Amino acid sequence: MRNSLSRRSFIKVGAVGAAAGLVPGAAWSKKDAARTVELTAGLAKLALPGVSTKPSSVWAYNGSVPGPALRVRQGERLDVRLTNALPEPTSIHWHGLRVPNDQDGVPFVTQKPVASGATHRYSFVAEDTGTFLYHPHINSVAQVGRGLFGALIVEERTPVPVDRDILWAVNDWQVALGVVVEEFDNPHDRSHAGRYGNRVAVNGRAAPTLTGRPNERLRLRLLNAATGRILALRLEGLKPWLVALDGQPVKPRPAGADDLLIGPGMRADLVVDLPDARGQRFRVIDQYDDRDVYTLGEIAVGDAKPVRAQPLGPPLAMAANPLPVPDLARAERREVIFGGGAMGGMMGMGPMNRMSMARRGLFWAVNGRFDAKPDAGSKMEPLYTLARGRSYVFALENRTVFDHPIHLHGHTFRIVSRNGRRLADGPWRDSVMLRPRERVEIAFVADNPGDWMFHCHILSHQMAGMMSVVRVA
């Protein structure tokens, strides 16, 4: 039975809007001291993008994929009650948000799983502005792959001036005979590049067209919610400005190819100025795999009257979030080596270890460790225990032939070097893309106590061993 909370305490959030790709925010109650919302994770029917057959069975928050886009202002408290109407346990992880440890939503690490038919309440203050993600953190590749994800947007006290603020949440579906392929977890996906779908969706639609007015300024929030697909985007014929990465503001600059390499769980915020060119259409293409370049969506200039007579200049920089700055001179160094995978990646682990790992569905290791993981219901011993308040540099090394978007819970870090090249003003991120054989150094202050997941966000890799815990005490 559901908890007997008053109607005023929790409100339902409307489904995602489809008009022009714009996702509306939640209809918040101004009478409440905190922003409050009710989310139900349950079964739903959905007509898959690009598939004209009967609707497919999916899992969804409040009946929609993506789930409702939640909006809160910086410094406000968000209260969420999750009702689990699924046939198995679930949770919600607030990806990229610096929340208290008991709100992080990782079963067997920060909370017990939310049983089928049960409810769970999350409550935290949104400290940082930006574009974030929410999703389950148990049986991850299947639950997210079935449709359980949504965006959480923390609005700035003084937003960057734009005419429209638009979210594009990207995911993919593996479809055969018009329905979702139910085999979400298999040895090939675990040991190779993860689960890739053959139907790509933006806000639940196939290759949507966003129509704007001449000289209109758009803020385009790009969010990759796929379980394995990495995006390498290009906006043909347009010159977007990069204003944020993983929610963290950057000094506005023309967006480059590296900025738009967006792995699962990663985000990029762009300011896009449409030209005074009525009737023109501009493709947004994904060219990560040069053998399969496709159109993610289009941005079109309509026939309406121009928003303004002249184009605008560079966008204004947003205020930085209140992040603790690591002291690099005194930072302690820790090595983190990611190994394993197909294509010879497991050869250095010895034949007995390789056989043991494969029998348990584990194909990846962190610092040579391939013990059981929380998704399997076991307790993980920390990879490192960090002293609260101290600065650390994590030297990450990818000894595999695959890309890995590495995500740290509970903290935001600064990228300080790539392959030995120091970055004078590296970006703040909660995820970093490690290319094959690449070495990256990240720095952060371990100021958030508790056990925190540190893992690859290609979810097949996470569930197959590329996952660890960092303890701050």
Describe this structure in words.
With 473 residues, this protein is mainly β. It has 3 domains: 19-155, Cupredoxins -  blue copper proteins (Immunoglobulin-like, Sandwich), CATH 2.60.40; 164-301, Sandwich (Immunoglobulin-like); 332-472, Cupredoxins -  blue copper proteins (Immunoglobulin-like). The chain has 4 helices and 33 strands. The protein has helices at 140-145, 187-191, 351-359, 459-463, and strands at residues 35-46, 56-61, 70-73, 77-84, 93-95, 119-125, 130-135, 150-155, 164-173, 175-176, 179-180, 199-202, 209-212, 217-224, 231-235, 241-245, 248-254, 261-262, 267-273, 281-286, 294-301, 332-340, 364-366, 384-386, 391-398, 404-408, 413-418, 421-422, 428-429, 431-434, 439-445, 450-456, 467-472. Strands 22, 23, 25, 27, 28, 29 and 31 form a 7-stranded mixed β-sheet that branches. Strands 12-9-14-19-16-17 form a 6-stranded mixed β-sheet, with no helix packed on it. A hairpin with a 2-residue loop joins strand 10 and strand 11. It is globular, with a radius of gyration of 21 Å. Mean pLDDT is 89; it is low at 1-33.
